């Protein structure tokens, strides 16, 4: 059961932007601090398994949206399947400090990602109470713009030393280095931006308009598992037994979540 919405006209039409500041501006920055410290598999494991329960908890505490016991069961089953599928098959190759710092950043990324999703849920409620309509694509655009407000200055801060070096380097040398760097990378950057921040975020925002954040993030946690068959075909990476078993459990949990509604 949800709490009644009041004061709907107080928020402007760009009410999805705060979701981007939290989820993209802080959450993605924390994600990219986790990745080089603990690796992609453990990063996906930590964030995938933490985001769904955190989103459900935040939405329940703030908006009063509670999942049914059956939905909680299927969410936990999905998260457990993801954990089994992504569990590292060998000892994690990172120092104790890297593991500690990486885990803290993963918790921050999960908390901000989940919080950003719940803010989007609140934004839809407030917009509806104000007589406004925000579709998934519009909300995604606002969310990305909100993320840029924090991610843009952060990038400039991190790259400040490189900018100083380039300022004293010969322009021809800088231009040639830039061409070599982007010649093979820009198609993948465009595809990743279109698939992830455009289509992916738009569909996620669409789902948040009608579905509790805990369920949405449980389904999003299955994303690394979807990559398994593509990695087998494109990179000839043979899936392990535990990844197949965990993937089957996670997919079964998602199907059960869909049927439980």
Could you characterize the architecture of this molecule?
This protein has 261 residues and is mainly alpha-helical. It has one domain. Helix content is 79%, strand content 0%. The protein contains 11 helices and no strands. The protein starts with 16 loop residues before the first helix and ends with a helix.
Produce a short descriptive summary.
The protein is mainly alpha-helical and 261 residues long. The protein has one domain (12-178, 185-260). The protein has eleven helices and no strands.
- Based on secondary structure, the structural category is mainly alpha
Termini Cα gap: 15 Å
Backbone shape: globular
Total count of strands: 0
Helix content: over 70%
Uncertain spans, ≥5 residues at pLDDT below 50? Answer: 1-12
Average pLDDT:
82
> Structurally, how many domains make up the residues?
1
Q: What's the structural blueprint in terms of helices and strands?
A:
Blueprint: H1 17-38, H2 40-63, H3 69-86, H4 96-129, H5 136-158, H6 160-167, H7 171-183, H8 186-208, H9 213-220, H10 223-235, H11 241-260
Keywords, please?
261 residues, disordered N terminus, single chain, 0% strand, mainly alpha
């Amino acid at each position: 059961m949800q709490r009644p919405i009041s004061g709907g006209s107080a928020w402007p039409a760009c009410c999805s932007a705060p979701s981007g500041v939290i989820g993209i501006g802080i959450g993605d920055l924390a994600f990219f601090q986790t990745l080089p410290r603990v690796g992609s598999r453990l990063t996906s494991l930590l964030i995938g398994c933490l985001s769904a329960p955190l989103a459900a908890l935040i939405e329940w505490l703030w908006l009063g949206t509670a999942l049914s016991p059956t939905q909680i069961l299927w969410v936990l089953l999905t998260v457990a399947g993801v954990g089994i599928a992504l569990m590292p098959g060998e000892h994690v190759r990172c120092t104790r400090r890297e593991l500690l710092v990486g885990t803290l950043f993963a918790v921050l990324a999960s908390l901000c990602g989940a919080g950003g999703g719940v803010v989007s849920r609140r934004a839809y409620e407030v917009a509806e109470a104000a007589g406004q309509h925000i579709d998934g694509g519009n909300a995604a655009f606002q969310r990305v713009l909100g993320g840029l407000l924090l991610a843009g200055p952060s990038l400039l801060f991190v790259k400040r030393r490189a900018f100083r070096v380039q300022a004293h380097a010969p322009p021809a040398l800088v231009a040639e280095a830039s061409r070599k760097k982007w010649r093979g990378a820009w198609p993948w950057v465009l595809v990743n931006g279109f698939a992830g921040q455009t289509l992916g975020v738009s569909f996620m925002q669409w789902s948040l308009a009608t579905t509790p954040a805990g369920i949405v993030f449980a389904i999003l946690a299955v994303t690394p598992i979807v990559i398994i068959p593509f990695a087998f075909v494109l990179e000839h990476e043979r899936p392990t037994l535990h990844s197949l078993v965990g993937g089957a459990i996670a997919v079964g949990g998602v199907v059960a979540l869909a049927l439980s509604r």
